[in-house]
Design brief:
The complex is a heterodimer.
Chain A (H helix, E strand, L loop, with lengths): L1 H15 L4 H5 L14 E5 L14 E3 L9 H12 L1 H4 L12 H4 L4 E5 L3 E6 L5 E5 L15 E7 L2 E7 L19 E10 L2 E9 L8 E9 L14 H10 L3
Parallel strand pairs in A: 5-6
Antiparallel strand pairs in A: 1-3, 1-10, 2-10, 3-4, 4-5, 6-7, 7-8, 8-9, 9-10
Chain B lengths: L6 E3 L2 H5 L10 H4 E17 L5 E8 L5 E8 L2 H6 L12 E9 L5 E9 L4 E3 L19
Classes of the chains: A alpha+beta, B mainly beta.
């Protein structure tokens, strides 16, 4: 009897092990439509944008925390890193792409309806519409932030992002991808003021296997928290500012 | 004619620990991190523009000529979260601006702190992003 009980307990522990303990312990409140409520203003506490591989605990797969580049792609990454000051797409005020947009030191705000989850970003007025009632991506087209189709798996919003272009990087360290990039995001409330963000990144032209990041977004709890205005038109602005000093 | 400005070398070591990290353009490409400067001048205008606000000020050279300077500050969102508003610095105020000078030698700089004549020390550049959860709360809105 005792052995049987121990066996059952062990089986239960094994069965639960792959699920993060925190994620299952918290049940998100519901929206008026009955969806898990992800709404609010959220932001990473410490932006990993400088170098994803150096952000502690960010890359959860593979276990070594390294982005699994194919040899030629690794050489390109190193070249990118060397030229980051001029070559980083963000230094040209380009849109960041996914998942970089979620990892910057700027807040984002989530809104929900029965049919869509909308994400507004302070960073250069980006927004994304995650369509919950569509099942097919737009064909033969690329966008900086791709095309997002979502569904609910329990309390987790799962977003399939396709139609991404090959112009964006993942961070300042030159980590990059091709136009074969496909990102699967998972948004899970893990507490009243925390939202776990996970992204599985696949690109058979660049990587030897899919890799995955996981990071907590924190709710802005300040009384007057809101997105403010931020835009980027750097080169013209810099030229004008310098001219004025002459 | 080469004009001497009231440019004082800052304490280099002190500032290296807090090099600004910019999200939209490269600090390293534009500014010389080995040349911290402190410049004293008179504010002519504060431009609240993206992706950086600019503090424009005039520096009087030893021979009496006036040189126009511009200092890159956080954009309006970042300054607001640091407690700034449009009354924080006004035209005509004497300021001491600390930061790093442009690599191309122009009278252009990235600024980290601005000290006003009445002794207020204002954070004008952030070492990490623009208003993370550690930033002070925005002032109450009317």
């Amino acid at each position: 009897m005792r052995d049987r009980l121990a066996g059952l307990l062990l089986a239960a522990v094994v069965a639960l092990a792959p699920i993060p303990a925190k994620a299952q312990a918290y049940t998100a409140p519901r929206t008026v439509d009955g969806q898990p409520d992800l709404q609010g203003i959220w932001q990473v506490r410490s932006s990993p944008d400088k170098d994803l591989e150096k952000a502690k605990g960010l890359i959860v797969e593979p276990k070594n925390g390294k982005i699994p580049y194919q040899p030629a792609a690794l050489a390109q990454k190193k070249q990118n890193e060397k030229n980051s000051a001029s070559a980083d797409p963000l230094n040209k005020c380009y849109m960041p792409g996914v998942p970089r947009l979620n990892l910057l030191a700027y807040p984002l705000q989530i809104f929900q309806t029965a049919d869509e989850v909308a994400i507004a970003y302070e960073y250069i007025h980006n927004w994304r519409n995650v369509y919950l009632k569509r099942n097919k991506h737009l064909e033969a087209i690329d966008f900086w932030q791709g095309d997002s189709i979502g569904h609910w798996e329990g309390d987790t919003l799962v977003v399939d992002v396709a139609d991404l272009n090959d112009q964006t990087w993942f961070d300042k360290a030159g980590d990059f991808h091709s136009d074969a990039l496909h990102v699967t995001e998972r948004y899970t409330r893990t507490g009243p003021d925390t939202l776990r963000y996970e992204a599985t990144i696949e690109d058979p032209k660049t990587f030897t296997m899919p890799w995955k990041i996981s990071v907590d977004l924190h709710r802005s709890t300040q009384p007057n928290a809101r997105l403010l205005e931020y835009e980027c038109h750097y080169l013209a602005d810099l030229a004008a500012a310098k001219k004025a000093t002459k | 004619m080469k004009i001497k400005f009231a440019v004082l070398a800052g304490a280099a070591g002190m500032l290296f620990s807090a090099l600004p990290v910019l999200a939209h353009h490269s600090f390293a490409a534009e500014f010389d991190a080995t040349k911290p400067v402190t410049v004293k001048g008179t504010v002519t205008k504060m431009d609240w523009v993206n992706p950086h606000s600019h503090l424009r000020f005039d520096v009087k050279a030893e021979d009496g000529t006036i040189e126009h300077w511009s200092a890159e500050c956080l954009p309006p969102n970042g300054l607001y979260r640091q407690g700034w508003n449009r009354n924080t610095i006004k035209g005509g105020e004497e300021v001491t601006v600390t930061g790093f000078k442009a690599k191309d030698g122009s009278n252009y700089m990235w600024t980290q702190t601005i000290v006003t004549a009445d002794g207020r020390r204002l954070l004008s550049g952030s070492p990490e992003g623009l208003g993370g959860p550690t930033a002070p709360p925005a002032p109450p809105q009317p």
